[in-house]
Amino acid sequence: MLTSRRLVVVAKLLSFIAALVLLVHMGAVLFTSRNNSSSHGIYTGWGSAFSSFGKYGGHAEGLDEYSPQGTKPVKAALVALIRNDDLYGMRQAIRELEDRWNHKYNYPYIFLNDKPFTNEFKQGIRDLTKAQVQFGILEPGTWGYPSWIDQEKAKKERETANYIKGHSESYRFMCRFQSGFVHKHPLLRDLEFYWRIEPDVHYYCDIDYDPFLYMKKNELKYGWNIAPDEYEPTVRTLWNTTKDFMQKNPQMIPQKNLIDWVRDKDGSYTKCHFWSNFEIVDLSFYRSPQYQAFFDHLDKAGGFFYERWGDAPIHSLAVAMFLQKSQVHYFDDIGYYHPAMSHCPKGSKTRGKCVCDPEKGWSNDFGCAQRWRSVS
């Protein structure tokens, strides 16, 4: 008869041998994987190694597609137009995005700049994520003045403007780029969806699903989170220019649309818009002929420079003209803060996976958000 002490020794020895066999098996699979031409690389090997043990809690499902090098279920990325000087604010936002969501899904990041990124910026971003990261320079002609703009007239507008960012030339370049060119950049050319991200923002909630996959499965084109109204002096002629486009291109406007969200009963402009610093978009929408025609019409009118037309009202007018409500999603479950405004899901102060105070996240009560709920 074996003594109790000997039984313990034998049990430990058997456990060690079992662990050794498992490691040898995984090593063999990994070696085979690395010598194959599979695009999944080492992660395919790990997935195959664990697949045999799924019934014991290995959870092999999804290991490949959401690993950092895995082929995601949606061709999508988190995209920022950013300056080197905004590194700290961008790191803060990425830290929260990773903690709240992307450490589980590992969607890639794309950073764009009108100037080369510094090594410090690149390393500062890469330190925070396992996901793939790409850095790109804006293409010629997408940043700056188009040839038809009267730059003296544009300068006079900046010098006399009394609204936020009114004196800024680069802010106008940014609005034009985000309105008409971001989706054309080579780094985004193969993407189906993008999630726009910004520096100095906060994400209040754990996100336990893939918003890209949710939008794709539900055939959604545009996702938003905050909807204020625009400051009228920045868009003095935008509505009339949009009406002119609709009159000249009636064949582009579907019979069922959302135009009543931006058009009041008397035909005036409500100035409602989706705050585009948070938007998740099916890029086929921005690449569509009707969106391109609308942007070209606005671009020729010069309002980016003779006023201060923002990409948010332009995106929103396009959504209102060309989409139906069933194609647009309100991400009210994602708590979000951008300087000056925030959205906090109701009840978050005492329950759920958000850490924010709904009384301070007051964008839900904006007239435009309430108006959105009433349109059909």
Could you characterize what this model shows?
This protein has 376 residues and is an alpha/beta fold. Helices cover 41% and strands 10% of the residues. The chain has helices at residues 4-34, 42-51, 87-105, 119-126, 151-160, 169-180, 211-217, 238-248, 259-262, 283-286, 289-301, 303-306, 311-322, 367-374; strands at residues 76-81, 109-113, 133-137, 193-196, 202-203, 222-224, 279-282, 328-330, 336-338, 341-343. The chain has a seven-stranded mixed sheet. The protein has a three-stranded antiparallel sheet with strand order 5-9-10. Helix 3 (87-105) links the parallel strand 1 and strand 2. The chain is globular and about 50 Å long. The chain starts with a helix and ends with a helix.
The gist of it:
With 376 residues, this protein is of the alpha/beta class. Helix content is 41%, strand content 10%.
Return the structural class. alpha/beta
Uncertain segments are: 21-62
**Helix segment count?**
14
Strand content: 5-15%
Mean pLDDT: 87
The H/E string reads HHEHEHEHHEEHEHHEHHHHEEEH
Shape: globular
Major beta sheet summary: 7 strands, mixed
Tell me the span between the first and last alpha carbons.
80 Å
Global Rg? 25 Å
Number of E strands:
10
How would you summarize the topology of this molecule?
Layout: H1 4-34, H2 42-51, E1 76-81, H3 87-105, E2 109-113, H4 119-126, E3 133-137, H5 151-160, H6 169-180, E4 193-196, E5 202-203, H7 211-217, E6 222-224, H8 238-248, H9 259-262, E7 279-282, H10 283-286, H11 289-301, H12 303-306, H13 311-322, E8 328-330, E9 336-338, E10 341-343, H14 367-374
Parallel strand pairs: 1-2, 1-4, 2-3, 6-8
Antiparallel strand pairs: 4-7, 5-9, 6-7, 9-10
